[in-house]
Amino acid sequence: MSTPNNYSELQDVIRSRYGELSRRLQQVAAYVLDNTNSVAFDTVAVIAEQADVPPSTLIRFANAFGYSGFNDMKQVFRRHLMEETANYTERAKMFRDLEDQPSPEQPEEILNEFARANVQALQQLAAQTSAEDLNKAVQILADAENIYVIGLRRSFSVATYLTYALRHLNRRAFLIDGLGGMFQEQLELIGPKDVVVAISFSPYARETLALTETASMVGARQIAITDSQVSPLASFSDICFVVKEAQVDAFRSQSASLCLVQSFAVSLAYHDKDHKKDTDDRKTPMSGT
Known about the structure:
alpha/beta; five-stranded parallel beta sheet; two-stranded antiparallel sheet; 13 helices
């Protein structure tokens, strides 16, 4: 069993396995699902007392879901709280309060940390993304009548760039942004010959999930860019690209996601060029001998 690496995954797996847990572990499960702040901030002793279980039961609970210990599982709750904190100043303060190790604060230190982390993330993207999936994604985009792209909150810049790039390739690409509260009206435009590119990372935007469900119902093909194979986007997608972004303190980069969608656009440009050449070659009459 793989260890859940974000709160949404952990929440889902706890719920799905709740019935098979012992009574004591069910007590812990109920407590951690209902008291995320306590799990993130309180000590093991306090959490055990509040959940009315021995501290050893917390460790057994964490082990049951693949973690080395309860403190290991606590990190998932801490990251979740930081991700839910939209204000960057508050997020930086929360990271300092939660973490024991010193974090970079000077501009040069922060730049070096992001550069180092992004290099690793980009190398991982290149190593773990299959050529077959890339080729399939490019072909799906090439065959699309219309391409609808959605990415909200921190994914918005990635979605915006992809739409921009596709428009420069003379593709009928549309950014689903819900401007003026028109999400539903934009979703109703999607047809079976269209393609949806959905970009979302934990915590997943509900509007993005609604779009993938709508696209599935009308038979549109889907390309998902997300952070886990068990992301809710993955279940509706024809291809799912799992991107592990670089993270420094509580702040995640977008370099790997941008690299991936830029690769889509450039590959599609070469695909169109080769397709046009093949078409022109077929139209050219052969000279007599």
